[in-house]
Amino acid sequence: MSTKFAFVGFRHPHIFDMYQRCRESDQIEIVACCEEDAETRASLVERDDLEITHDSYATMLAGVECDVVAVGDCYGRRAELLFAALEAGRQVISDKPICISIAELDAIEAAARKQQRVVGCMLDMRDLPIYLGLRQQIQDGVIGEVQAISFNGQHPLNYGKRPMWYFEPGMHGGVLNDIGVHAIDFIPWATGQAIKTIVAARGWNATAPQHPEFQQCGQGMFTLANGAGVICDVSYLTPDSIGYQMPLYWRFTIWGTRGVLEATYNSKTITVYKNGEPAAREVEPPAGKPGAYLESFLREIAGETEGLHLSSKDVLKAARITLQLQEAADKGGRDVEVA
User: Fold this and answer.
1) 3-117 maps to which CATH number?
2) pTM for this entry
C-alpha cells in the first residue's frame, strides 16, 4: 500500500528534491499539491511534472485523504502549517528549517507528542558521500578523539534570484537557523559527541543595505560534551558569480588527538593529516545515500525505531539547538547550556 503525500508550499526550491523523490518512489502516491501564493502558483503553471490542486491549505487538509503533509513554504509560515497537519493527525516532513522560533518548536513538539506523529526534515548532509566519509573516518578512530572543528557554510546571496520573501520581516528568521542546522545535525552524528554549550554567536547585515533587518551573516562558537570546541561561519558572502562551485563551500576541518581531516562539499576526496605519517593522503569517500532522509522517514512512520538514518528525535534536537544558537546571536547570549 502506498503512503499518500500532500504537499503545501513551493516557495523554496529545496522542496522539489523531496517532491521528485516522492514522484519516483513506488512507496509513495502524491495525492494533492497546494500553493496559496498566487504569484508562485502562476510561476508553476508551465511545469509538466507538477499540478497544483489547491489554493487553500485549510481546504486541502480538510478534504484530502493523506498520510503525510510535506511543507516547503516560507520559513516563517512552516510552523503553522506543520502544527495544523499534526493536529489533524497527519505525519509531517519539511524542508529545513522547520520553524523560526523556540516557541514555534515547542508547539510542534507538543502536537507531535499528543498525536504520536513523526516530524521529518530534509537534513540531507548525512546522505552525501563526503560527509558520510568524514563520519566514517572519525568513527574508525583515524584521527583519535575529536578536539576542535571549524566549518564554513557560506552561500551566495543571489539577490534578485533568491525568493524575495527572505527579506520580509518575520519570514527568514536568521542565517544561523537557515543554514547552520545542517552542521548542528551532522556534528553530533559524526563525532558521537552531543553539543553541550553555546559559547557565543553573532548575526549581522553586511552588503544588503536595502534590507537592514535581514541577517545576512552569522558566526558562532559552541562546545561538545567532551570539551571540543567548534567555530563556524554560515554567511551569505560567497560571490554570486562563483556560487555553489566555490572550493570552500561547506568546508569542514576536524582536529583530533592523532590527526586532522579536511573536506568540502565539492572535494572528491577527504584529506587526512595523520600524526606519524610524513605527508597528507587522500581517502575516497564511500557511496552516498541519496534520499536517505526520506527513506528513514517512511520507515519511522511505519513503526520502525532501530537503525534509522535520521529520526524525528534527531530532527527536533537539531532544530532546538540551532534555534538556541540563533537566539544567542539575536540577544547576545553567552555560555548557554544546551538542554
Assistant:
1) 3.40.50.720
2) 0.96
